Amino acid sequence: MTSNPSSATTYAVVLIGGGIMSATLGALLRQLEPGLSIALFGRLDDVALESSNAWNNAGTGHSALCELNYTPQGADGTVDISKAVGVNEQFQISRQFWSYLVERQIIVSAKNFLTPVPHMSFVWGEDNVAFLRKRYEALSQHPLFEGMSFTTDEGQMRQWMPLVMQDRAPGQPLAATWHPAGTDVNFGALTHRLIDLLASKPGFDLNLAHEVEDLTPTGDGQWDVAVRAVHGGGERRVRAKFVFVGAGGGALHLLQKSGIPEARGIGGFPVSGQFLRCTNPDVVSQHHAKVYGKASVGAPPMSVPHLDTRVIDGRQGLLFGPYAGFSTKFLKQGSWLDLPRSIRMDNIGAMMAVARDNMPLTKYLIQQVMQSSEDRLKALRDFVPTARKEDWELITAGQRVQVIKKDAKKGGVLQFGTEVVTGGGGSIAGLLGASPGASTAAPIMLTVLQRCFADRLPQWEARLREMVPSYGTRLGQDAALCAQVRERTRTALQLDG
Ligand SMILES: Cc1cc2nc3c(=O)[nH]c(=O)nc-3n(C[C@H](O)[C@H](O)[C@H](O)COP(=O)(O)OP(=O)(O)OC[C@H]3O[C@@H](n4cnc5c(N)ncnc54)[C@H](O)[C@@H]3O)c2cc1C
Questions:
Q1: What pLDDT score was predicted for residue 6?
Q2: Residue nearest (by alpha carbon) to ligand 1 atom 37
Q3: Residues 492, 494, 497: CA angle, nearest 5 degrees
Q4: What single string gives the DSSP state of each residue in 298-310?
């Protein structure tokens, strides 16, 4: 990846961080206003080396086809699908944006970052089977989830997931759902593609190995951005009319430094992740699905165990996990001091309240950290009864920083979603949290546009509708448009549903 030299020190837009979020926002802005001057600063030597890297996340195109945590069951036994509908609607926006890029030949093909991989849910035990049946009955009625199949038949399950069914102990009630519209996404490849695209046109300065150290309002609605060249070369200051803090785990720190009141009171709780990876072709060839199970008690929603087919740089592999861990770092390549440094007078109360109120989570994390390799293998064997230790290696994934926010009743609450923080009259935006994550980069960045570029939206609206035909509507409430969007994006992206 090359950088374009530039003499300009004032940019219309400064993107901080070289992950999927900055890349998506840059690509959207470039389509909407090709003349904008944009600079990107990333502290590492390449883009997509943190959470957006292919092996640092699970690559699931989250659309609630298989993730059971998006369909909670109420005390009366009913299954609430509203969150699942919202997550699917968001993924349909990503599908539309990617389709636009492919249809216009801005990206030649989706093949190098997107692979159709069926999404499955798999449960055992009578209560879980009853829950999955109810979930299926509720979702399969909905146009966004049309195409889902349900079974309790082991023969059918053997066809869908032979590796999972091989040598499975008899006598346990089992159930599974299957959806062909599932995807495996290489978010690292997509990030590279989008940033290469930006860098191929004038008006974009790519500054890798440049760490943003400070953000100061200039008093005239702009930002003074202090940047340090990581491999020597000293400090630089640039001006920005708009700053996007897409620094992943580094975003909280920078938002705190910006001094915007909207970032006050927010804290971060890092949860690290590990996966078991298998690249043995004999094992890999027996599985083609993303199979999501049920979370254990106390586990945070993103720790639901799953066995995933991954397709990275044309090669197929399997991933199982995640196993949660605890590290005080906010970035995989961050500092042990990240957590202590993030504690301030304005957020300490909320953080203490979260520590007090989340004992099951603390217990769960301690259990996870204490796990031996035998314990990890045991969890894997719930999904792959024939798993052999020698076929699976432990890899460390990215860091997620969960958002802690003040709460009038409890003092502080831990959130597992994504939070867009904007301030300075719309001159700065930052992204905190990591779920549903990279899958929803396009809709999240549309939110950033709505909140920070409201004055330009009327001018941009027609182009936004070209990029995302469902823009401004809820696909879940328009069955005809939903069918049309699903079919168009299925064709453009060469998906199976
Ligand atoms: C274990 C795990 C599994 C996941 N699974 C999925 C999944 O299956 N599906 C899904 O959709 N999402 C998943 N996610 C979430 C997803 O990976 C993230 O939401 C997404 O990658 C975040 O992108 P980002 O651009 O915000 O951050 P990142 O990709 O982390 O990029 C941040 C960038 O900012 C840079 N940076 C940081 N500080 C500074 C600074 N001061 N100056 C300059 N640059 C800076 C970093 O070097 C990096 O380039 C997962 C995450 C984890 C950790």
A1: 44
A2: 247
A3: 100
A4: T--GGG--EEEEE
